[in-house]
Structures are given as structure tokens and as C-alpha cells.
Specification:
Low-confidence stretches: none
Largest sheet: 2 strands, antiparallel
Shape: extended
Mean pLDDT: 84
Strand order of the largest sheet: 1-2
Order of helices and strands: HHEEH
Number of strands: 2
Number of helices: 3
Length: about 80
């Protein structure tokens, strides 16, 4: 969210940076099924603790994954597999 009124952040659900890192840490250290998406389990998936999160149907498709992977390779000049 961009705004000229930073005090507006209190109007939206949010969490500390430490708690925001929990989902990444959980994903990196727990045995998860391939294709899992972990995010906060609170209001609008913007607060809370790590849990399986909503994945939009279009995001599950192979074409969008391939496009994103190719874009990442190009922009970061990295080539894996």
C-alpha cells in the first residue's frame, strides 16, 4: 500500500517484520508437499501464523509457472536446471 498518509497503516491488518518472516521460515524448515503455498492464517491472510494459504486457480497452471520461471532467469541472469 502506498499513501501520503503513513498513519493509515493502522486501518489495515498487519504484523511485525519478525512475524512476517514466520511463513518463509516455516516453508524452509518443514516437510511440505510440492506445490504447497504457506502464508499467514489470519484476516485476509495478512496476519497470523503459518498455515496452508489460498492459491488462485490460474496460479496452479503450468503456463504461468513457466512464464514466471523464464522471466526470473532473464531478469536475474540465472539458469537453474
Amino acid at each position: 500500500m502506498r499513501t501520503d498518509k503513513p498513519e493509515m497503516i493502522d486501518e489495515f491488518p498487519h504484523m511485525s517484520a519478525n512475524q512476517g518472516a514466520f511463513s518463509s521460515l516455516f516453508s524452509a524448515t518443514e516437510p511440505l508437499t510440492g506445490g504447497s503455498y504457506i502464508g499467514p492464517n489470519g484476516e485476509g491472510e495478512m496476519t497470523g501464523f503459518p498455515a496452508p494459504a489460498f492459491i488462485a486457480e490460474y496460479a496452479k497452471g503450468e503456463p504461468i509457472g513457466s512464464t514466471l520461471w523464464e522471466y526470473r532467469n532473464r531478469k536475474l541472469e540465472l539458469n537453474f536446471l
